[in-house]
Amino acid sequence: MRDWRRIALLVLLTFAAALAGVVIGRLYVVPQKPVENELHELLHSQLRIDAEQHERLDVIEKKFAIRRRALEAELRADNVRLAEAIEIEHGYGPKVAAAVDRSHQAMGELQKETLEHIFSMRAVLRPDQAVKFDEAVVKALTAKER
Question: What is the pTM of this model?
Fold first, then answer.
């Protein structure tokens, strides 16, 4: 009976260490800049947008910021559900699989809406600005230096 308890304790400690590693990694490892941040820097510092473009871009950015916050809140809720499923199943069972699938769906929705946001911003640009914008998108998505 004592061996079973030791094994259970070892499994729990291993699981806690793994979770701690994920949390520490997410908090302290510098994440790569999101594509949209690089594009916003380009828009506001290098493309010489005029006042009308600036106003139109502000409207687009404010609308997307609201939607992005909602999707990010959904992702956080999905992470809570995933943690609860892991706590219940202690392995990759049906509840964990369903929570992962739900999280992937929300991530996909965020990615789609981010792309729609990027294309909305591009539509405001003049052709000469759009060329530089497109180059920045390709560079950001492929990590290529041009």
Answer: 0.64
